Amino acid sequence: MTPEAQRRVDVVRVRGGAREAGRDQAATEEPLEIRLHGQSFAVIMRTPGADRELAAGFLLAEGVIRGADDLGTIAYCADRGSGRAWTPTGGEGADADARAENVVNVTLANGSAAAIDRLMADRRQVTASSSCGVCGRRTIASLAAHAAPIGASWTVAASAITSLPARLRERQEVFDGTGGLHAAGLFARGGTLVDVAEDVGRHNAVDKIVGRRLMRDELPLADDLLFVSGRTSFEIVQKAIYAGVPIVAAVSAPSTLAIELAEAFGVTLVGFVRGHAFNIYAHPERVATV
Predict the structure, then answer these.
(1) Domains, the chain, ranges and CATH?
(2) Which residue in the list 113, 114, 132, 290 is annotated as catalytic?
């Protein structure tokens, strides 16, 4: 993570009725605007760091790209006078030049002007009709046109799954200083941590990992499993499906739609991984308990 991932803040600590002023670390949250060929496509609240990977993973999950070959360039926007932008110090309408690092421009390989226009028109329709991102846009039925079911036949030991929280926690560097970040970890079959990302949003952390692998042309992640520090939503499972991950596990509970999606697309979904126990909500055949 970059130094910008956390900041020093003033704090008043209350202990047993006593108050004491001090300083603490807080996880940074700032907006990242993703542009496609110079046109604004989405704004994501995130923790600064791995912004290019976040953009790549987000575009994969949104169905804008299918693989590394679809990516042209991902660059921070350096244009002057680029319009109004939100900044932590300036508020709504502040000069965007001061926060150019919060804007990335993505160019697609072999992307025609007509194709970009269609993407932007579709995005505007989604924004007008939906209040929560992919909700209402990515139904289980519509996903079938963009992603294939996961067919991995390998298994993982129950002991490997119960070891995931501690192994991920050991690598949560910014969490140690702030206590305010989610994390996602990519693990090999035996439970070895392969990659980790932290962010104020679970979805962003997953996008950063998937985007990093996408940019290295390492998808699909058919031999890995994904572990997240919070609950498992529809979007988390959706991102795993696009990345080809056969097993998704989490500290907390999955939603009903996440379970339905995992069942439909062959993803083993594990929740409440705490201590030596966990629940399997879909495709238990990949977990060896003996």
Answers:
(1) 30-140 (3.10.20.10), 156-288 (3.40.140.10)
(2) 132
Does 135 qualify as catalytic in the annotation?
no
- Return the DSSP state at 67: S
Q: Which residues make beta-bridge pairs with 32?
A: 44
Q: Average the pLDDT over 107-132 and give the result.
A: 66
Give per-residue pLDDT as tens, 76-103: 987 644 433 323 333 433 333 335 788 9
Strand, coil or helix: what is 286?
helix
Residue with tokens 């966990």: 278
Q: Decide if pLDDT at 56 tops 90.
A: yes
| Tokens 């390492």 found at | 218
* Local structure of residue 118 (DSSP, 8 states): H
Pairing of strands 156-157, 287-288: parallel
Nearest to 202 by CA among 178, 174, 228: 228
Find all residues with CB under 8 Å of 161, minimum gap 6, and list them. Answer: 191, 249, 270, 273, 278, 287
**Overall pTM > 0.85:** no
User: Is the previous residue joined to 220 through a cis bond, with omega within 30 degrees of 0?
Assistant: yes
Q: Rounded to whole angstroms, how far apart are CA atoms 67 and 139?
A: 21
In 3D, which of 149, 152, 72 has the Cα closest to residue 115? Answer: 72
Residues 6 or more apart whose CB falls under 8 angstroms from that of 60 comprise: 66, 67, 210, 211, 214, 239, 242, 243
How many Cα atoms sit within 13 Å of 125 on the Cβ side?
8
The residue written with tokens 């192994």 in the block is: 167
- Strand, helix or coil at 49? coil
Q: What angle do CA 266, 268, 271 make, to 5 degrees?
A: 145
User: Are 57 and 209 in contact, with CB atoms under 8 Å apart?
Assistant: yes
Cβ neighbours around 185 below 10 Å, total? 27
Place of tokens 């109004």: 84
